[in-house]
C-alpha cells in the first residue's frame, strides 16, 4: 500500500511540475515575446551549453515535429530549421541569426548521433586476418611504433614488444573489433613521437618524482621499501584497446557531448573521436605513473578512478579536453 501511494504521489508531482513548467514557459514567452529556442540562442554563448539546452528543449517539446527534429538526416537540417521557424511563428527575416544558430546546434546534435553509429559499426566489425586492409593496418601499427625493428614474421612473439598478449594480435581485438586497431594506428601514425614514448615508458616504467612533502611523511621503513620497489609497466596495445572501450562508453553515454559540442563547430567526426582517444591515452599514461600501482592487478582500480576523473571534467559545460600534442592542434584552434 505504501509503495502504491508513493508511486501515486510521484506521478502526481510529475504531471504537476510538467504543467507548471509549460505554464511558466507560456508566461515568459508572453512577457519577452520570444520562444524558448530564441531565448537560448540569444542568451547562451555557442558551444556545449547552448547545444545541450537546444537539444533538451526540442526533445521535451509537446510537438512531435520538434521532438523528431533531432533525428533528421544531415541533408534535411535546413528544411527542418524552416519547419521550426514556421511552427514557432518566427519571422526569419527579422531573426536571421536564429536560423544560423539553430543550424549549428542541429548539425552537432545529428552529427553526434551519426558518430555513435559509425563508431558502433567499427566496434562490431571483427578483425579478419584474411582481409588485406586489416592486415595492412596491423603492419602499419608495427612500423610506426618500431620503425628500426623489422617484423620477422606475421605470427611472431615480437608482437609482445608493443603490448599484445601473444604471437598473433588478431585475438586481442575481440572486445573492440576494428575500432581498437583504428585508434591505435591513428595514435601511432599522427602522434608518433608521443606514442613511441608512451610505449617505451610502458616497457621501462619510471617512478613519478616524490615531492619534498611526501618524502617528509614517509617513515624510514617506507622509504627503504620504496627504494627497492619496482615501478609497474603495462601492455601498451592491450591498454590502448581498453582505453578505446573507455572512450566508447563516454561517447555512447553522452558524456562526450560536452567536449565535442565545444570543439566541433559543426558535426563531430570519427577524427574527433580518434583525437580524443589520443588525449585519453596520453592522460591515462600520466595518471598511471602518478598512481604508482603496486602491481598490474590494480589496473581496473586505476582505470575506474581515471574514468571518474574524466566524467567529472566533462560535467562542466565549458569543458573541452585540451590535448597538448600534434594530433589535436586542429581541435584547439577551432
From TrEMBL:
Record protein name field = ELMO domain containing 1
PANTHER family cross-referenced by the UniProt entry: ELMO DOMAIN-CONTAINING PROTEIN 1, ENGULFMENT AND CELL MOTILITY
Give every ELMO domain span: 133-314
Name the InterPro entries on file: ELMO_dom (IPR006816), ELMO_domain-containing (IPR050868)
Q: Name one Pfam family in it.
A: ELMO_CED12
Q: Which domain of life is it from?
A: Eukaryota
Q: Name one GO molecular function term.
A: GTPase activator activity
Provide the leader sequence positions: none
Amino acid at each position: 500500500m505504501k509503495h502504491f501511494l508513493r508511486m501515486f504521489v510521484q506521478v502526481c508531482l510529475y504531471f504537476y511540475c510538467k504543467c507548471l513548467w509549460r505554464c511558466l514557459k507560456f508566461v515568459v514567452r508572453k512577457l519577452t515575446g520570444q520562444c524558448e529556442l530564441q531565448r537560448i540562442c540569444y542568451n547562451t554563448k555557442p558551444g556545449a551549453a547552448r547545444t545541450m539546452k537546444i537539444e533538451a528543449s526540442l526533445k521535451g517539446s509537446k510537438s512531435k515535429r520538434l521532438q523528431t527534429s533531432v533525428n533528421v538526416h544531415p541533408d534535411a537540417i535546413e528544411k527542418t530549421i524552416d519547419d521550426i521557424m514556421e511552427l514557432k511563428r518566427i519571422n526569419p527575416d527579422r531573426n536571421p541569426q536564429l536560423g544560423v544558430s539553430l543550424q549549428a546546434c542541429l548539425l552537432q546534435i545529428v552529427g553526434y548521433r551519426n558518430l555513435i553509429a559509425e563508431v558502433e559499426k567499427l566496434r562490431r566489425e571483427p578483425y579478419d586476418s584474411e582481409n588485406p586492409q586489416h592486415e595492412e593496418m596491423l603492419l602499419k601499427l608495427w612500423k610506426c611504433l618500431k620503425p628500426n625493428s623489422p617484423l620477422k614474421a606475421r605470427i611472431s612473439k615480437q608482437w609482445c614488444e608493443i603490448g599484445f598478449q601473444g604471437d598473433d594480435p588478431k585475438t586481442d581485438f575481440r572486445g573492440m573489433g576494428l575500432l581498437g586497431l583504428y585508434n591505435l594506428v591513428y595514435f601511432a601514425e599522427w602522434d608518433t613521437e608521443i606514442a613511441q614514448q608512451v610505449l617505451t615508458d610502458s616497457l621501462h616504467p619510471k617512478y613519478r618524482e616524490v615531492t619534498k612533502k611526501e618524502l617528509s611523511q614517509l617513515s624510514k621503513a617506507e622509504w627503504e621499501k620504496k627504494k627497492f620497489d619496482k615501478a609497474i609497466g603495462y601492455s601498451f596495445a592491450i591498454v590502448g584497446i581498453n582505453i578505446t572501450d573507455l572512450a566508447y562508453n563516454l561517447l555512447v553515454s553522452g558524456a562526450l557531448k560536452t567536449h565535442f559540442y565545444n570543439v566541433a563547430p559543426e558535426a563531430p567526426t570519427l577524427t574527433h573521436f580518434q583525437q580524443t582517444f589520443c588525449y585519453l591515452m596520453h592522460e591515462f599514461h600520466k595518471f598511471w605513473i602518478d598512481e604508482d600501482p603496486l602491481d598490474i592487478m590494480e589496473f581496473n582500480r586505476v582505470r575506474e578512478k581515471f574514468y571518474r576523473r574524466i566524467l567529472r571534467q566533462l560535467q562542466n559545460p565549458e569543458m573541452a579536453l585540451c590535448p597538448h600534442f600534434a594530433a589535436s592542434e586542429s581541435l584547439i584552434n577551432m
